[in-house]
Amino acid sequence: MQPGEKAYEQLDYYEQGIVNDLMSAYGHSAEDALRIVNEYLPVLHALDRYDNTETYAERFHSAFQRNVSGKNWLARIRKLSAELNRSGDYRTKIQ
User: Fold this and answer.
1) What is the pLDDT of residues 39-84, one digit of tens each?
2) How far is CA 21 from the centre of its chain?
3) Does the chain have fewer CB atoms within 10 Å around its N or its C terminus?
4) DSSP assignment of 2-32
């Protein structure tokens, strides 16, 4: 485990569920699944937890397979958020 990473027991139940789903649905070892969740925890914290753990496991697995770092993913989220904030309420423009 790298410095600053959380152990499985330090994750909340939702985060543990993502680790479990990465193992059961995608065949990751416990060590790899934990490493993946730790990589993308900042992304998870930046987004809402409306989706189930299986959906986040799928997203994290896909990002991992495509070598997208959590840092780059988070930067993209922040960039898009800033663009939306500058443009005003995007919902009124969609209608």
Assistant:
1) 999 999 998 888 999 999 999 999 999 999 999 999 999 998 888 7
2) 13
3) C
4) -TTPPPGGGS-HHHHHHHHHHHHHH---HHH
